[in-house]
Design goal:
With 163 residues, the protein is of the alpha/beta class. The protein has a single domain, classed as 2-Layer Sandwich (Nucleotidyltransferase, domain 5), CATH 3.30.420. Helices cover 37% and strands 28% of the residues. It comes from Pedobacter cryoconitis.
Length: 163
């Protein structure tokens, strides 16, 4: 048992009690959009366990179920969401991209509200801080994940891989 997983507390009678603190096990990456990328990274095995693309309501369900499982097993989870609201510029065809980004910005707000209401720890990450748009071949080389993936799933995985 690692020392940092316990808190020693001395009672007035001189007894020592150990309280187990939950260990961070699951880190979930979310790439919001009409096709929501979702990835789950297991910090214990240091491997991705899920890389997929879902509808937004399905992704909410998965995150909620993982949260419930984590609580039942006294482990922690953390969610990282790519936050389009923090994007600085959009490049070529920027008007079209900004219109599409408007819907994604709404989803980012919905993710923030959902995670707050569920009491789930999370971080909203600026797109510039993430290595995204990795092709399937490079993704496999980086992560070892050999199953088929979409760019949305890969982007979600890159939010959490190796944390």
């Amino acid at each position: 048992m690692e020392a940092n997983n316990f808190i020693d507390r001395e009672k007035t009678q001189g007894l020592h009690h150990r309280i187990t603190l939950p260990q961070l096990v699951y880190v979930i990456g979310i790439d919001p959009g009409t096709k929501t990328g979702l990835a789950i990274y297991d910090k214990v095995s240091k491997q991705l366990t899920v890389v997929c693309t879902l509808k937004v309501h399905e992704a909410f369900d998965v995150v909620k179920k993982v949260s419930e499982t984590a609580r039942q097993h006294n482990v922690k989870m953390f969610v990282r969401v790519e936050d389009a609201r923090k994007r600085k510029r959009y490049g070529p065809n920027s008007n079209a991209k900004q219109q599409g980004a408007g819907a994604i910005k709404i989803q980012c707000k919905q993710w923030e509200e959902f995670l707050l209401s569920e009491g789930i720890s999370f971080d909203l990450v600026a797109p510039a801080q993430i290595k995204t748009k990795v092709d399937a071949k490079k993704f496999k080389m980086i992560t070892g994940w050999s199953a088929r993936t979409s760019n949305h799933g890969r982007d979600a995985a890159m939010l959490v891989y190796g944390l």
